[in-house]
Amino acid sequence: MKVEDSSSNSSMAITITVEKDGFYEVNGTRQEPTVSLHMLAGASKLRRQLRDTNELIVCPGVYDGLSARVAMEVGFKALYMTGAGTTASRLGMADLGLAQLYDMRTNAEMIANLDPYGPPLIADMDTGYGGPLMVSKSVQQYISAGVAGFHIEDQIQNKRCGHLAGKRVVDIEEYLTRIRAAKLTKDRLHSDIVLIARTDALQQHGYDECIKRLKAARDLGADVGLLEGFTSKEQARQAVQDLAPWPLLLNMVENGAGPVITTKEAQQMGFRIMIFSFASLAPAYLGIKGALERLKTDGITGIPDGLGPKKIFEVCGLMDSVRIDTDAGGSGFKNGV
């Protein structure tokens, strides 16, 4: 066969003969077969999904190790670390900008490294936690944590959940400073991490200002756009059209400020990524509350048969731990688990 030399216009003919034992000859020289497996890190995997497919990347919102493990068990191809869920689970507080870089980065790092070559993780980065220097530090720490993508927004530092009233945003120049600092940092570190520009300006300034801000962020090199808090399906569909072919992310919060949009509808509208921020948090609240109410009234939680400690531990990688110990020659599990 012929192989083109990419460094010049010349070409060379190479004859490869494959033998039955798996060995092969290259121009008469016998070679031992080798197999090289290149495992894609999360950022590169997410970037390829955006570039090479037209599929809607659906990311359930996870907020801790267990919720992330369950999402992986179900088979999702990507995950989203919610800032609201991180604040609620780690601090026991409402999403009012109280979680800072340390809280968010350490949580994201734990989730992303449950399986470093598994589903890529998109993580909330709020406002970047300060001026350009803090934005740069935040991006660098997210990259080293193994995060695949992040969104950074234009709310003031004293921010709040995107589905609460009373949001305020910085002026467009300050917002673009954040985007520029994030872009310069990821480029300096030669990272594939996906930069998602988010705007929360709809409440305060209206739709046209949101499109203006997202177009400016796109022009600075942001990879994906996120307009938070759509008031109608028509508005969501219009945003995709107004920013095409730039990929947009849809944050779906059921019982939030906007309409309920299904994954099928989002795909038809042209969105490329869809996150469900409260997909784990709200059901966890209902399940925990119901079990504790039964404990208080009936003296027992009423957990279904078969859902014992071992099942939970299996979801959290019990058998992988057993395999690692056994393969290394350890005896920690010789009597079973």
From TrEMBL:
What keywords were assigned to this record?
Pyruvate
Pfam families to which the protein is assigned, alphabetical = PEP_mutase
Q: Which Gene3D superfamilies match?
A: Phosphoenolpyruvate-binding domains
PROSITE patterns annotated for this entry? ISOCITRATE_LYASE
Q: Which domain of life is it from?
A: Eukaryota
What CDD domains does this protein map onto? ICL_PEPM
Protein's UniProt name: Putative carboxyphosphonoenolpyruvate phosphonomutase
Q: What is the lineage of its organism?
A: Eukaryota, Fungi, Dikarya, Ascomycota, Pezizomycotina
